[in-house]
Amino acid sequence: MMASSYNAKEEDGPHSGTPGLGGAAVTKSKKPDNTAFKQQRLVAWQPILTAGTVLPAFFVIGIFFIPIGIALFVTSNNIKEFEIDYTGVDADSPCYSCAKDFSWNSTTSCTCSVDFKLEQPFESNVFMYYGLSNFYQNHRRYVKSRDDSQLYGDLSALTNPSKECEPYRTSNGLPIAPCGAIANSLFNDTLELYYVDSNGTRKEIPLVKKGIAWWTDKHVKFRNPGGNDNLTVSFEGNSKPVNWRKAVYELDPTDSENNGFINEDFIVWMRTAALPTFRKLYRIIQKKSSNTATLPSGNYVLEITYNYPVLSFDGRKRMILSTISWMGGKNPFLGIAYLTVGSICFFLGVVLLIIHHKYDTRNTSADIPS
Amino acid sequence: MKWRNPVDLVRDALRGQRARDKDLRNLVSNLPYEGLEKSKQPNRHFPGNAIKTTKYTLLLFIPVNLFEQFHRMANLYFVGLAILNFVPVVNAFQPEVALIPICAILSLTALKDAWEDFRRYQSDRKLNNTPCLIYSRKEVGFIERCWKDVRVGDFVKVVCNEIVPADLLLLYTADPDGVCLIETANLDGESNLKQRRVVPGLCISDPRFEPESFNGIVVCEKPNNNLNHFKCYVERPDEEKVGAGLESLLLRGCTVRNTDHAVGFVVYAGHETKSMLNNGGPRYKRSRLERRLNVDVIFCVILLFAMCIVAAVGHCLWLQAVPGVPPYLVPDSAGRLDSPALSGFYMFFTMIILLQVLIPISLYVSIELVKIGQIFFITNDIDLYDEGTDSGMQCKALNITEDLGQVQYIFSDKTGTLTENKMVFRRCSIMGVEYPHKENAIRLNVLEEAESEEEIIFNQPPRTGWSMDFENSEPEGRHHHHHHHGSRRKSKVSGQGQKDVAFSSPLETDVIPDRKLLQQISRSQEKDPYLDFFLALAICNTVVVSMATARRRRASWFSPSGRTNNPLETVSTLVKKVGSLFTSGQKPIHQHLTVSKSDMVIEEDDLSSEGIREKTEDLDGLETCSLHAASPSHKESAASDNLRYEAESPDEAALVYAAKAYGFTLLARTPDSVTVRLPSGKDLVFELVDTLAFDSNRKRMSVLVRHPITREYVLYTKGADYAIMELLGTPYAEHFSGSEKNIASDTQHHLDCYAKEGLRTLCITKKVVSDKEYMSWSLQRQRALAAIEQREELVMETAVQLETNLSLLGATGVEDRLQENVPDTIIALREAGIQVWVLTGDKPETAVNIGYACRLLEEEDLVINMSCKNKAVCTSILDCTLEEVRRYDENPQNVDTTPNISLVIDGRTLVMALSPDLENRFVDLTKRCRSVLCCRVTPLQKSKVVKVVREKLKVMTLAVGDGANDVNMIQAADIGIGISGQEGMQAVMASDFAISRFKHLKKLLLVHGHWCYTRLANMIIYFFYKNVAYVNLLFWYQFFCGFSGTAMIDYWLMIFFNLFFTSVPPIMYGIMDKDVSAEILLGLPELYRTGQGTGEYNFFTFWISILDAFYQSLVCFFIPYLVYVDSDVGLFTFGTPLNTVSLFTILLHLSIEIKSWTVVHWIIQVGSVALYFIVTLAYSAICITCNPPSNPYWILQSQMADPMFYLICIITTVVALLPRYMFHVIKNSIAPSPLIQAKLLDRLDPSARERCIREWRSFRGGVHLEDSRSSTPPSPALEIPVEMYTKSTGAAELMEDEFVLNVITDNYLRHNGPGT
Q1: Contact by Cβ (8 Å): B151, B253
Q2: Any chain B CB within 8 A of the CB of A244?
Q3: Model pLDDT, residue A362
Q4: I want to staple A59 with a disulfide (CB 3.0 to 4.6 A). Which of A349, B490, B667, B1144 is the partner?
Q5: Phi-psi region for residue A272, left (φ > 0), alpha (ψ -120 to 50) or beta?
Q6: Residues of chain B with C-beta less than 8 angstroms from the C-beta of A370
């Protein structure tokens, strides 16, 4: 025993590496460590995907997905949504005249009103959206055409906007605030909603214009330069975007908390939409009391100050009224998807069950097929 | 430093350049110039001994490294993209952001390079600062300096066990004979001692060497990397030239052994030393998988271009369809919009930038990392570690690991690869009489069994009494055996690490003399051919005699302990240890030993139990020796027993040991004399006149000695039979006995028999050279030796001149034993679908025999022997054979009974068969053969065969060999494997992988090869999939943003996605996944076939995964799209779930592919997801305006507060992965692949698993590969001139033989036993 232990020691003794290779000398036995890791013998879980083993997974998926799908579908169906296109493409539509002879440069505003009827009352809070179609707010160069530091209230960016804003960076030698194509193309239609009584009198529905933007946008990302007081002074050295009728500090003169860069309509617009057909939150119609509907069924009039030209690029404008649930707006797709996938999984589970009975039993026995 | 004229400096530099470039260098001693400034030093032009293997310097690291990195296409592509991004019209990202990937990759690679370089720097520094002794005139003695201070022209003293710091011309040694023994293991792995001698005629007379007296000029050749060649002469002041060669050169890196000290003159230093010139870096080969991969990368490029063109055209059309100027089209600063066509053109480039990830550049980096990991595991495999040589697996080529999993053809060398290259003397034939040495054969058989079934033997008394304990009583003798086996067993467990003992096993050293031959010798007189035969065995070699007591100890390469540590001290402490072992454990034996040998104490100096066993073994040898020794005292012969023979060729050692067994003990060998003790106890000192060294052209070696009694010049020659037979003069016997026996033909007959038994044969001859003849020859010889041009040719010529008219003494048969588990390995490799070819220089008979022994050929095989002299015959044979074989194959009757065809072909026929017009037919024939044996092939032919097969059949070839003659073949094959064995390191140096035993090939290929291949193949497929799946999200989005190149995912997150979130899992998968366990892979070699040919990574799997990627990206894009369509979702709010969903999909996709989950897998998979959320959340929380225009601020947070986000993630992931999951499930259930079935076996408990494996194999027709002793008669003979070899009778014969032998042994014992 001693002899062998001695040998082991001698083994551990210095051995020389090949000097020519210039490598470091290996000063002990080159015998590799016999550890589970180095010998690749770590305890391992080796799942084999066979019908038998995955069967439960499919049924579990089915069992989970179908109720979720039903819940989503029901929720989506309970959401009330009303949509009206007021672009005025057809000659008989109320806004036809406004749409026809309108451009960014006109100074007078055109108004038109659209009548519509809600068949069903909208019970909870109603969100009023404007929707644009065929408007590629996600165009690469459009998306880039903004200066976030300027919107963050950075004074240097105010006087010297980012190059990305070109060609909406300066106007008449003055830096534009807010600069860039996004701001320049701010949606500037004004929508007002009136309820028409059975006796024909119009009652204006109060539209809340605050709380439509993300809280973080309003309070963190967007700031007026030099605070919210006296925006006129703050934006003194700036020019308004070329397409704008009024300066940025005139967006909401009534409320200093909603004026300038922190105007919520502006903030909402600045969060560029992902898809060419999109909607943006415009106003919120608060539910007044629990026993009356926010928007009872009946006739309504939508008064539009038609400022925003879309016909030139074949765009469409819509006004959307929608209630909202935990899953957001009305979209039956997800519910249907869950239902479908759940059913498919269930079906596949059955198929696998058959396969399992036909084939898998063979594998469990030791009989190995060719 | 003094100011020097720049012109002088330039002139000096030019002179230095010339001096270095000259074919001959004149070197003088530095001593007269000691202390002078540098410009006066005569040897200043030659580099110093400091070495620098680093590639970079601190200052130039960045530029040099960048320069190197930009040699890669991939990096150029990246840089091109980054530059493209700086062009404003096409940029997709912020230009700075686009620099990140390239910077990351460049800096990672630079870090790796820097680290490697730093390691090299450290080891260089360590080497450079190793102390050594340099002579100083000022100090009048040797003073300690560093290696780096050694310069050409210095005198360096090397002490025993110290490493030689530079290439030294040996001038003086402490040995009175002027001999210095060195070990070159560091250099070429050869562990035997080599003898070097001082340059003759210089400074020998001095009792103490005075370097200052050296005033000659050393003229030597330009440095070269040939380790076995050196030419030089010393011009003395009296203008006499003294030639010196390799025999006087101490190479840097060698270790001085058994010589107290030696002094040498530095001829080459530093980078000019032979060992440094031999130092090649790692080799780079391109694996087949990588070649395939590059094709797919081109597919990806095509795909990328297609997608970019789609986007460009789409953008163009979209712009044309837009009426007017919508507010979302941003004009340039001049207010103009580009024309749709121009925009489309720009868009093409923008899209290339946007979709760049499609070209998996990171894949190359990942593959490198994966291969490093794979190599880590291969080199750390304990099963590939050989205790005997203390060497594990070495990977020299870093990038062809996966090729190991695709091997289809193995070309193997025989000697040293399949066999041990440790020779055992088996038989001899003297003067036409055969001496079969049956007792010895029995002994070897017993030993073999002992090796394989140690347990059993250990507990049993030995079956036969082969070891002759003549003087001991029966019980003690038994005890003796007991001890023997016990210690043998122990030594196997513990003592095998003794590499420094070249021939330690009793298997090789001990020979039991043939009884008949002993009697013959005892009758023989002084000038008997029998005596000559054994004298030739003892003398005709280059064996170095060393004493067992002065056993070498390995000194550390760096530590100077070798100098301070007297080996004897260690020995004496060990004596105590060993002694105590003895007294405690095996007292009777101890007594036995001490009683029988008075100087046993010295013997116990032997450092291990193994040594002790040897001594006990040697006892047998001693006793047998004394069988008819006149009166050798125990003491004397004990001294001779202490001898240890170290030979460059194992055959020589085996022969010397054999001679020793018959009492012809080689006692000492100096450059000038050989001392042999005769059986009578008389010591004969032969004057060694010359040694005509072995070379592969002559295939023989000779020694010319002067007989001390007759004063005749006698030339003993030994060599290959065909090299000797044609040189024979009149038969020796005619002078002698007068009997007109034709010794040559008888011996030839015996030689053929030996060869058939698989023995290596050598012929031994003698020639008496007359004084006159010698004188004339000696003059020529002298001239040849002094020549510096064409010296080899001249020297060889003189050798040929002398080696004529030889008289045949006899022949020997030496067995080269198969390495352990060779048959197993070959069977396994064959079952794995690998064709094994053996290419050997041996004669066909030997090769065929070995072929049967290692199960390359089976007894029922049809063996076709092709051997023809001219091409016409060769052509017809080839045609006929091919025709027959084809007909046989096509015959439906033979479907089940098709015999396995094996081809044996000799070198000459091979040349013809490989000629361009026959090549195709030959390859076609070999394709149908299960195994091919090529005999008598030259190294060049070996590589030719490999090349032809590789190119004609387009298969993955692997060549394995151990010697210098295999280097060509190793380099020609796709994978070259070197076996670090007895024959030096040339093969290993040239190889891609180095293993120590042939059996390791089994695990290397079947397990590691398979793993590496499947891992890498799957990893690459996954990588392609991953990139396509992710990038396509961006592509689909282009359809909704007017093909404007918008990305809905934050650029940083996109980059992180590839760089951090999804990069580690595939790398880990590539390194660690295990589809089937090693046990199953070894148990079922058939599983290896999955990787052969196209394997798992092929056109089909690639496009399936690309299609799957398209499907998954469609799902990942369109489910969120349909959820968010016509909603108020923002651009990047939309991108966040997409990014998350694809992360889940991509990671879970990998989870489906991962075959075995270890804790590492879990950590990395879960960690990747966690990292994604942590990084993204942190980034979204911090970045307010930092990365316009994406504004990630609070986006993920708001998304994560939305239940829809989770619902989208869940359903998308499920839908995306459902097809792949289903595909796997259904395939595994209905038609499981062999791998899956094997994996199922893994779950069974071991015994059930074994049963299943057996069943499986029998099902798959592995029966014929099972041991089949009952040989079936050979298959129908072909009506063509082919020879058949069958070994059907061999086994029976052998059995009978054994039976007879047993009887003989019994008789023998009775006769000669106790009485003698």
Answers
A1: no
A2: no
A3: 52
A4: A349
A5: beta
A6: 1259-1260
B1224 contact A CB<8A: yes
Q: Same structural domain for residues A312 and A335? A: no
Residues 184-243 of A with CB under 8 A from B: 184-185, 214, 216, 220-221, 243
Terminal Cα-to-Cα distance of chain A (whole angstroms):
51
Residue A292 located in a structural domain: no
**Does A64 share its domain with A94?**
no
Q: Is the pLDDT of residue B1124 over 70?
A: yes
b/e map of A112-121 (b: 16 or more CB within 10 Å)? bebebebeee
Residue-number span of the structural domain to which A344 is assigned: 54-79+329-353
- Burial group, residue A366, by CB count within 10 angstroms (0-12, 13-18, 19+): middle
Quick one: closest CA in B to A21, which residue? B279
Please check whether residue A103 touches B, CB under 8 A. no
Q: What is the pLDDT of residues B349-401, one digit of tens each?
A: 999 888 988 887 778 888 888 998 999 999 899 888 888 777 788 887 777 88
DSSP assignment of A58-92: HHHHHHHHHHHHHHHHHHHHH--EEEEE-S--STT
Residues of B in contact with A38 (CB under 8 A): 377, 380, 382
With cut-offs at 50, 70 and 90, classify the pLDDT of residue B579. Answer: very low
Rounded to a whole number, what is the distance in angstroms from the first to the last CA of chain B? 83
Please, are residues B44 and B152 in contact by the beta-carbon 8 Å criterion? no
| Among B1046, B1133, B1193, beta carbon nearest to A140 | B1046
Residues A197 and A233 in one domain: yes
Cis peptide before B1066 (omega within 30 of 0): no
CB contact under 8 A, A344 and B1225: no
**CA–CA gap between residue A97 and residue B894 (Å, rounded):** 93
CB contact, 8 Å: B1189 with chain A? yes
The verdict on residue A164 lying in a domain is yes
Contact B1207 A334 (CB under 8 A): yes
Distance CA A15, CA B1060 (A): 41
B380 touches chain A (CB under 8 A): yes
Evaluate if residue B783 carries a pLDDT over 70: yes
Q: Are residues A96 and A172 both part of a single domain?
A: yes
Q: What is the pLDDT of residues A180-210, one digit of tens each?
A: 999 999 998 999 999 998 888 999 999 999 9
Enter the ipTM: 0.91
Of residues B719, B938, B692, B689, the one with CA closest to residue B800: B692
Query: CB-based contact (8 Å) between B1258 and chain A?
Result: no
Q: Which of B578, B1126, B1214 is the closest to A277 by Cβ?
A: B1126
- The closest CB to that of B1184, out of A19, A152, A169, belongs to A152
Residue with the two structure tokens 């067994």: B661
CA B1205 to CA B1198: how far, in whole Å? 10
Ranked by mean pLDDT, the top range of B120-134, B298-312, B917-931 is: B298-312
Whether A93 is in a domain gets the answer: yes
A71 and A216 housed in the same domain: no
Question: Taking all residues of chain B, what is their mean pLDDT, rounded to a whole number?
Answer: 76
Could you tell me where the DSSP H helices lie in B1201-1233? 1203-1230
| 3-class DSSP assignment, residue A195 | strand
Is residue B1060 very low, low, confident or very high in pLDDT (cuts 50, 70, 90)?
A: confident
With a cut of 60, say whether residue B580 has pLDDT above it.
Answer: no
**Total structural domains in chain A?**
2
Q: Which residue of A has its CA nearest to B1205?
A: A327
Q: Same domain for A209 and A345?
A: no
> CA A339 to CA B476: how far, in whole Å?
89
User: A263 with A335, same domain?
Assistant: no
* Beta carbons within 8 Å of B1026's beta carbon, 6+ residues apart: B1062, B1066, B1109, B1146, B1149
Q: Are residues A308 and A346 in the same domain?
A: no
